[in-house]
C-alpha cells in the first residue's frame, strides 16, 4: 500500500475521531444539578472560616451558629448600574443575584445573563464577614435602605451602606460601591470600636457555589473548567477541582502578601481581589449539600478604643474579557481556559483581536486570521501540493506498475521507490502540512468556545452567533463541497477501497460539522477555498510542464 496514502488516511482518521469525540461531548445533555440533601447546610449557612495560628497570633473568637432566616428568604435591596443589576440580601449583605446587562442568557433570549444566582439555575453568592466576638458575619442580618439604588446620569458610582446590629460596643457598617462602566465592586467594613478594649479581628471574603457547571463544554479530551482558582506570585495560577475538595486532596496556596481567589466557569468569573502587600490566607472547602466555598482571610490591624478602621476588598464578577482582566489584577487573565493548547490559542486570540479592531466584526477577523495562517504555512502547503500534483501526473505509470507487479508486493514497492527518486517526489510530503495544522485547528476551536468575546458574536446574514452551529447548515454544506473538490484535485489512490474511503471523507466531515461552531466552520471553509486555489494553480503548472516536456 502507498505509504503516503496510509499516513494521510491515519491523519484523517485521527481528526475524525477527535471531531466525533468533540461533537458527542459538546451535545451531550447537561448534568443534572445536585439537590441539597435534607438537613444539609444551605448555601449561605456554611460555618465562618477560622484563621490559622500563623495569621492570628492573638486569640480570635469565632461566632457560633446564629438562628437567622436563610438568605433566600431575607429581605433584599436592588442596586443597578449601566452594567449590572445586583440583589443584595439583608443576611450578611451577600450579593445573591447578579445580572450582566450586556450579556444575554442565550442567543434566543433577551433576558440578562445571571452570574451570581439565587436558585433560578444555580446557587452562587459572593459573601463576606468579620471574625471576632460580636462582629457581623455572612449570617448577620443587616439593616437595608428603604428603596433600591440606581446609578444616576452624571454619577460615576452608587454606594450601598448596610448597618449591622451593634454588639459589645462595636459598630460595623458594610459599604459596597458599584461603579459606572465596570464589573468591579468595592466591599469594605467600617469598624468603630467603642467597647473600651482593643480588638484584633479578621475579615474574610468568599465565593460560595454549587458544583454544577453553568455552560459545560467538552472536546478533544479536555473540558472547560468550573471551580475555585487561586493565584499568587509564588504559586502562580492553580485550579482546584470540586472532586478534590470532596476527597480532601484539594490544595490551596500558602499564606502570602499577594494574589486572589476566584470561582471560574465557562466565559465568566468572580474573584476577590484584596489589596497587594496585605497578608492573607487562602481556603477552599465543601460545606455540604453539593455546595463549596473558596475565599481569603485577611487580618485587620488592632483597633484601639475609640478608633475607626476600614478593611475591604474588590470583587470582580463578570465576563472573562481578556483585554480588561490583565489590567484589573496580575494573572487574572489566566482564568480564560484554552485547554492544553493555550500556548497556541493565546497568541491566536491576540491576532484575532487585532483583526477585530480593524474590522469590528469577529467573522471577518476569523477570515483574515485564516488568510494569515495560510500565508505562514504557504511553503509547506506549496511543497505538499507539488508532491500531490506530481503523484497525480504519475498516476497512469503507477497503475501500469500495479498491473505488472500486482502479485509481487516487494518488487512493486521497490519500483515505486525508484520512480519517486527519479522524479524527486517525497511520497510523505503531503502529510506534514496537515499534521502541523491540526493543533492550530484545535486551538482555534478552543478560542471560539473559550472566549466570551465570541459568545453570541454575529458575522453576517444568518450567522448571528459564531460560537453556535449554523442554524441553516449552509456553511457545513459549502465546506463539504469544498472538501469534495479538494479530493478531486488529489491523485486517486491505487487501492480502490482506500479511494472509496477518501471520497467518503467530505460526507462524514459535513455531517460532523453540522453541529460545530459556525466560526470554526467558517475557518475551515475559507482555508479549503484558499487551498483549492493554491492546489489548482500548482497542479496546472506541474501538468502543463510535463505536457510541454513530452511535446519537446
- Measured on Cα atoms, how large is the radius of gyration? 30 Å
Structural class: alpha+beta
Strand residues, percent: 15-25%
Helix content: 25-40%
Shape: elongated
Arithmetic mean of pLDDT: 82
Low-pLDDT runs of 5+ residues are: 1-10, 23-45, 57-69
What is the terminal-to-terminal distance?
34 Å
Biggest sheet overview: 8 strands, antiparallel
DSSP strand tally: 20
Total helix count?
Answer: 12
Largest sheet, spatial ordering of strands: 8-9-10-20-17-16-14-15
Please characterize this protein's 3D structure:
- It is a single chain.
- Strand 1 (76-80) and strand 2 form a beta hairpin.
- The chain contains twelve helices and 20 strands.
- It has 552 residues and is α+β, with helices and mostly antiparallel strands.
- Helices cover 36% and strands 23% of the residues.
- Mean pLDDT is 82; it is low at 1-10, 23-45 and 57-69.
- The chain has helices spanning 3-26, 242-247, 322-328, 342-359, 362-376, 378-393, 395-405, 409-423, 432-450, 474-489, 496-513, 518-551, and strands at residues 76-80, 84-89, 95-104, 112-114, 117-118, 123-131, 149-150, 157-163, 170-179, 184-193, 202-210, 218-219, 222-223, 227-232, 236-239, 260-265, 268-273, 281-288, 291-299, 308-319.
- The chain has an eight-stranded antiparallel β-sheet, with no helix packed on it.
